[in-house]
Specification:
Layout lengths: L11 E6 L6 E6 L3 H7 L15 E6 L2 E6 L8 H7 L5 E4 L2 H5 L6 E3 L3 E3 L4 H6 L3 E7 L9 H16 L9 H4 L4 H7 L21 H8 L2 E2 L12 E2 L9 H6 L9 H14 L3 H15 L5 H13 L4 H4 L3 H7 L8 E2 L2 E2 L9 H9 L11 H6 L14 H17 L12 H12 L5 H21 L12 H4 L15 H15 L9 H6 L7
Parallel strand pairs: 3-8
Antiparallel strand pairs: 1-2, 3-4, 5-6, 5-8, 6-7, 9-10, 11-12
Helix pairs in contact: 5-18, 10-12, 11-14, 15-17, 17-19, 17-21, 18-19
Length: 520
Amino acid sequence: MAGLDLPGTGGVTAAWISPLTGTVADAGFGGGLGAALARAGLAGVVLRGRAESPCGLRVDDGRDTLVEAADLAGLATDALADRLAPAEGSLVIGPAGLAGSPLAGAVADRLYGGGRGGLGLALAVKNCLFVTATGHGTVPVVDVEALSLAREALLRLIGASPALGPFGLGRYGSAALVDLTHGRRMMPTDNFRATFFPAAAAVNAPHLERQCASRAVAGCPGCPVGCHRRTADGAPFPEGDALSHWTALLGLADGTFAVAVNALCLRLGLDPVSAAATVACHAEVTGRSLAPAEALTLVADTGAMRGLGRELGCGAATYALRAGRPEAAMCVKHLELPAFDPRGAYGLALAYAVATGGPDAWRAGCLGHELLRKPVATDRFTFEGKARAVFGGENTMAALASLGVCPWLALATGLEEWGQALAAVTGHGVTAGELARLGERVVYRERLQNARRGLTAAADDLPIRFFTESGSSGEGIAVPPLSRSDFLIARERYYRLRGVTAEGLPRSEKAADLDLSWTH
């Protein structure tokens, strides 16, 4: 559906084996690359092997060409993009990937950063610096009228959603959630040693917008939300995780620094979230507060894998282990946590732990019902009912991801609406339950892949800090440590629902039920 201008489906999804976590990994990117590939007649691109020298892949209406790019190796992502031939969509890596950092991500269309878990390095080891596409064809649709009705239904739901509207994600992107985490007392502060940042009002999205005069940019094809912005001087406005981590997590009440360091990360091809979490881990290990100028230097060194940056560039888990302080790394499966403290939302805590690719705040949909209270509110300070919520949420989000749907749109739309759109395109009717079943199959297959790489229940866990230290209680909100016993009970219930063993390993009979194969 990527080439049909349906809301939130024009981007592209990358999938790889993470050099940071050793698990399956995937990431969605906004922009026009997905739509361009679809209109070029392609459902996807598979990159195998390694080129002898740096190159890029250019797709023009189904004709693919490997372009020599040795002269582009080492360029910042914006400079590399400037040197590419015109295209409708692009995905590029920066110098961090070529330097060998597993924190390296990628940037789509000069604006959309992502690829947590080392996509930049995964592409760099193949000597692939970029993928671009242009397509002028049309995606076949069986029932044009039905697709038009499905599009109208989706747009109505999106337009009626407060979370996606002009005072939420539609205005500031996920940076709008900084105020929410602050008010819920679950804003990771001082490397997750606290959950409340007193200076949050000085670094939230509205205040930062007034400081840097941000402006909206063209959204993804067909999507009315328009969630991405640039500052007056053209720098990308930080997403919520990056804005929160480069301020509260480091104890820095400097929004302009957050804009500058986020832009530097994207230019270097570094994941801003993991980079911030690793720097915060370093600050705790050394017992020092970092000034903005020092943090910028550390990021520059990390992107080049030089000096101390060579250690930081391996990620917080590896850095902390080598420093003899493994407890200071706030990671699950070696991936640094995003900017939502799990002590403030227990479904989110379970979702962090069991996610196949590492902690992802959107992977199981818990942000919707625990924080945004949509579609219905749930008690965020209990594990009761959360195993089933995470199981069902993972299935739903996996199904939507398989359709290329932006996860934010799950705050307003459901599998019923997307099933109607899919049926109009393909001519094959599909129910919401059938889509959820397909999502279950996706998640189980990811668990199969992880099991083959040696992952067990030991990987489905949270840092010990969350079970032994309280968050920042106050204003009528108590933030105690997570109950270890309640967490383990919830995880056991999740395992039963997911159909895996007590060690988190797949069962052959469940795999067969989902038409998948598994042998121990």
